[in-house]
């Protein structure tokens, strides 16, 4: 693919790349005995692109100031969608006026006082850019977004403002796939090794409070409005990690948003919280697919995500059979925790292959969208690997190798042991 902005081409590229997760020599999970799985050598490369999470659709809509009114609005609805992310070709507002992009219920509201690419106003929400004129608002969970132009005063000069070019133009939106669409768009063996042992993180809030606390530093990444990965805070400063194949460039970072606390409120429920969404700021360091497959970066609005705590890196190598666990957003679902290899209460996840190339191997369950998830050591609750490849065994880059390359860019010294995340 050329290095033009990926927004226009990513939808096709993701769909094609979804079939490339596993080399031909690596069979699906059910084709070899589990006892042999963790001894298999790691494949050379992980999936080259994020999992396909949605698609872009054209939308030509204009919002103008309305005579005698303080607001005018348009509703974008695409039944069955898991999110709606609106792209604005242009925004020109009078001082003090604003546009909002909101869920019909009002549980999510994103506000902009103009085009933030020309200068963000205090109180503006984070935003993303996609290699073309304008910007995209943060996504709204669900299949409907209400876009409203709000004026500080009733307008008597609406016609004149329209002639002068004031108002808002929407040229497209991104919609998230339903669960069935996601499965169809990513047709490959998932990396659930036997029975799926993952459960909502809320299921472990009381029985495994430290594992639950650590999971709060993990976010769902939406790449270019189209792809899905997992990312997480590292260290005490504004730093986050994911896979390089989830973020190939600074342009990809600027087109990404990160949703913290996207998790079900109750164990086994279908009631995810809206969470807290931020966007990408600065790309600090990359290691390509052929090396360690990581991306270190910062985000906007860092203060909003500090209450979720952070993760620290192990500087040692993994040990055979040591207990591990993986929080993440497989299948673009609310955050789940993989503690057990099979059924809940069975054998804990553990390291099966200590080292194969740059990787370490395990049978802890994962699936599309888990790329970038932290693999934590049960003994210290620090990150021991960066998950980046499925296949049973699943594989993560040994974090000791990553640490050697980024140690000067992060603060990896926890001031005190953390049992529960701030605010719990």
UniProtKB/TrEMBL annotation:
InterPro entries in UniProt: Peptidase_S1_PA (IPR009003), Peptidase_S1_PA_chymotrypsin (IPR043504), TAT_signal (IPR006311)
Keyword Oxidoreductase on entry: no
Protein name, entry field: Trypsin-like peptidase domain-containing protein
Gene3D superfamilies registered for this protein in UniProt: Trypsin-like serine proteases
Keyword terms, alphabetized: Signal
Domain of life, source organism: Bacteria
Signal peptide boundaries: 1-29
One Pfam family in the UniProt entry: Trypsin_2
Protein source organism: Actinomadura decatromicini
